[in-house]
Design a protein that fits this description.
With about 190 residues, this protein is α+β, with helices and mostly antiparallel strands. The chain is built from 3 helices and 9 strands. It has one domain (about 15-185): Peptide deformylase (Peptide Deformylase), CATH 3.90.45. The chain has helices at about 35-45, 130-145, 155-165; strands at about 50-55, 65, 75-85, 90-95, 100-110, 110-120, 125-130, 185, 190. A hairpin with a 2-residue loop joins strand 8 and strand 9 (about 190).
């Protein structure tokens, strides 16, 4: 019988779990991940995201889901993903994060990455990702390492972003001037 995926609660900054590194999944754990993958997919879609790491729903395992299709109907999962190669060329673009509602800041990322891991069935995969998909994968894999977009900012931008996030004086408005729903950025859905 088909079980409808659950909507999972998102972990929001400053939840300490977001700075925790995630553990590798073992072969024995893979069958148990199918339900979590479906639940994470629903959670990501309902929050208008395009990527979600398991740590963002309180599960400290190396698992992420993503969908960068315009129709939001092409869910993928990566288990134990690792960036094994990055291009020298980088691009700075506004990023949002489902764990930082309504915060959008410029983050520099490699424009191309090679990622290795396992698919949802446990089969080895290698992805050569470019542009927005490369950005999404780097962002989500950062989460699995216990890093957030704050770790990718210089001190001045980080302080300004935190003031903005917590609504403190001197924070100003988001860098893209947007009042979009959580998870939306000027360059696409939240990560």
């Amino acid at each position: 019988m088909f079980k409808k995926p659950k909507l999972l609660p998102l972990r929001i900054h400053p939840d300490p779990i977001l700075s925790q590194s995630s553990a590798e999944l073992t072969a024995d754990e893979l069958p148990q991940m199918r339900e979590l993958i479906a639940d994470m997919g629903r959670t990501m879609y309902e929050n208008e995201g395009c990527g979600l790491a398991a740590i963002q729903v309180g599960v400290a395992k190396r698992l992420l889901v993503y969908d960068v299709s315009e129709e939001q109907d092409d869910l993928h999962a990566l288990i134990n993903p690792r960036v094994v190669e990055t291009s020298k060329s980088c691009e700075t673009a506004d990023e949002g994060c489902l764990s930082f509602p309504n915060l959008f800041e410029p983050i520099e990322r490699a424009t191309k990455v090679r990622v290795e891991g396992l698919d949802a069935k446990g089969k080895p995969v290698t992805l050569d990702a470019e542009d927005f998909l490369a950005r999404v994968l780097q962002h989500e894999i950062d989460h699995l390492e216990g890093l957030t977009m704050l770790n990718r900012m210089d001190d001045a931008l980080r302080q300004q972003a935190l003031r903005e996030y917590f609504g403190l004086p001197g924070g100003g408005s988001s860098s893209n001037g947007s009042d979009k729903a959580p998870g939306k950025t000027s360059t696409g859905p939240g990560l």
